[in-house]
Amino acid sequence: GIHLDSTYGLLPEASVRMRDVMLDGDRFGTNLGIGVPYRQYLFDESPQFQWVHGQFGLSYRFPTVARILAPIIETSVAVSDDAREAVSPGSYYVLRTSGFVDLALLLPPFTFRAGAGVRYSLLFDRTEPDVPDPNVRPEIFRYGLRLTAEYQFSPEIQRRDLRSSLAMSHFLALDDETRFFYEARFTGQWAPHVSSHDFLIRSDGICLLGDVTVIDEVPLSGDSQRATFGGRYWVRQALTLELAGRFGVWQDYIKLGIFNDFSIFGDIRDGGNLFAMAEGFGPSIHFLLFEQVAFDLFYAFGFSGEDFEDFDHNLSFSLHLAF
Predict the structure, then answer these.
(1) What is the DSSP string of 231-297?
(2) Per residue in 47-74, pLDDT tens?
(3) How would you classify the pairing of strands 197-210 and 293-304?
(4) Positive or negative torsion for Cα 99, 151, 167, 2
């Protein structure tokens, strides 16, 4: 698939899933994503190549034991320019790697995984700003436990992007100096359908506690907050809620929609973690191409800041396999 990312620009992604690769009943997966700073190539008079993001991941699931248990090995590596002026006035890069060994309990439509692993992050090629950020630490190595759970409420729905589901994950870790770190994430979607019309209630949340650094912080904008606000909000705690309707013009092939995204989060830009809110809304249009490919186009109008006095607007889209 491909979508617009508030930090990395145009982000094409591809994944491959295979079975019976080495053993009967096993599963192998790989994914690759590359960021393209399209604004630079469109608007700069003499654009030059610039690396903004690249990610590669591998996973292997061993054949199931007693039809419900399966060991899983996962690893990933990413190199990104997060483009945060508070960290560096110029370009800088963050290497993020991870490796986990999990045991999965497979009880469709419920999946539960528990395991252990490591994360290593390295910040490099950075220019020190005039006012150093005390939360910047160039190298982090953590090891810990991870728990994930996912439930598909409507596995009978053929379109994967319109299924009702709930997923959550927890990562509890220490670093080499026994500093504590905790990360919790969840995402949920309820998607009732009336004839060819779709109604979506979607929410995402994140909570980072303990020894949190700038490498751990994440952008506020995403699937449930399409207003990007110029990429200025990076968060440690955030909760977003999207309400959307998509109304069929021509069966499932063309739909017109409207969406409203609301976020509450901790604003850390001034060194604190102040309660803040952001609102994004706008129209959308949705296509089903070649009976397989979903193309979703959004235009977001966003308000943020104290009394919502800051206004932004931006285009957002995604292109992905629907089935």
Answers:
(1) G--EESEEEEEEEEEEEEEETTTEEEEEEEEEEEEEE-TTSS-EEEEEEEEEEEEEEEETTTEEEEE
(2) 677 889 999 999 999 999 999 999 999 9
(3) unpaired
(4) positive
Quick count: other Cβ atoms within 10 Å of Cβ 111? 16
> How many CB atoms are closer than 10 A to CB 215?
20
Task: State phi, psi for 260 to the nearest 5 degrees.
Answer: -140, 120
- Residue 250, pLDDT > 70, answer yes
Chain position carrying tokens 């069929």? 248
Q: Is residue 298 within 8 Å of residue 226, measured between CB atoms?
A: yes
Share of the chain above pLDDT 90, in %: 70
User: Which pairing describes strands 53-61 and 218-219: parallel, antiparallel, or unpaired?
Assistant: unpaired
Provide the whole-model pTM.
Answer: 0.91
pLDDT level of residue 45 (50, 70, 90 thresholds) = low
Residues 104/66, Cβ–Cβ less than 8 Å? no
In the block, tokens 């409420």 appear at 153
Q: Using CA atoms, how far apart are residues 31 and 3, in angstroms rounded to an integer? A: 15
Q: Show Cβ contacts of residue 147 under 8 Å, excluding neighbours closer than 6 positions.
A: 112, 113, 114, 169, 170
Sequence-separated (6 or more) residues with CB below 8 Å from residue 98: 74, 75, 76, 117, 118, 119, 120
